[in-house]
Amino acid sequence: MLEPQDKTRFEQLVLPHLNSAANLARWLLRNRADAEDVVQEAMLRAYRFFDRFRGGDARAWLLQIVRNTCYSWLEKHRPAELMTEFDEDLHQRPAPNPETLATQADERQQLMRALESLPPRSREVLVLRELEGCSYKEIAEVTGIPMGTVMSTLSRARERLQRALVSAAAKEAS
Amino acid sequence: MICEFSPITVHGYVDGELDAVRSADFERHLENCAECQATLRKVQSLRARLQQSNLYEYASPQLRERVRRHIGLAARGVQLSGNLQRRFLIPVLAGLAVAAVFLIGFFLVSPDSKIAPITAELIDAHVRSLQPGHLTDVPSTDQHTVKPWFDGRLDFIPPVADYSAQGFPLLGGRLDVVDGRTVAGVVYGRRKHLINLFAWPARSQSRLSDASGSRQGYNWIMWRAGDMQLCLVSDASAADLRELKNLISK
What we know:
Chain A is mainly α. Chain A has two domains: about 1-85, RNA polymerase sigma factor, region 2, helix turn helix motif (Rna Polymerase Sigma Factor, Chain: A), CATH 1.10.1740; about 85-175, Arc Repressor Mutant, subunit A.
């Protein structure tokens, strides 16, 4: 249990990164309601483990906990999503419902679906880099990918996203 | 013109992760390399699209409130100690906390448990290889001897290279059996330690993911490169293994 002064430190250091936590969880789980439950759980874990935080990058520290909580949740509730992590051909894009078909032209929708069609390990590095603005060092800290392979992981993820966008555009045109 | 930079360098450049010297070198190179220019434009336009499309999901006010409420509750546990009834609460809360720690520990290690049987087998194979006469079937420090040796004995080509200059001399190759299949064993030295690199074709639906750990005093790192599953095992330090892994992944 934390002392009151730790509670204050937690509020000052960790709580400000709640948006980052929500963003990462939403993209890993592809669903806001699930993401909110998982973020709440992750924040509670972070709070319980706060005495282990030895200073440094609080955002990366929190995001690492959020990521682990997300993967545990996926493992329990949607294990199939983790199984296809290296095999994008097996990764079926969710069938678009009529509503999303109507707005197919929408750039945001297109990007969202392409991003969601990627395996989680590709998706997370893109979200951390492009949306969250993390450095390679922070990405390594959050995901556990060795620092030396962050660049190649990102390059692969970008190529995959590019391909997903191209194939979506081709489908639309046909 | 043949591009002398690895195709991923452009990503490091766009992300501002190259050091000043390499960045300047790459900029000079960019002027004359149409291929890298094209990749650069693609990566930059992808970034612009991602950043201009409002994809960032902010925490909703409800979530903010929920989190604050929960943390508020958790924190009050500390301040409870005044009265008798509440004193009774503390052991209960402590018990719950201990249970939570165990549960979390379970969740944190559970991804490992899927690869535990295979790493146990790989470590056994490593230990076996240390017995006299078992280390290599083809003892050679020449990658042009070791690599062709595997050819014809395996239906895949394991990565083989000599990293003497970086302190990991190639010592030879061997066939091994792990998880009921024939795998390639490539042996490297590291000071007085031996390192086994195990390589086999990854199953497309394999649940093995990039992971590392230690067991029985041996360190291991497992990762996937393309359609190949690779694992380093050694009593050398985890840092040494990571270094070799980075060399192999280059």
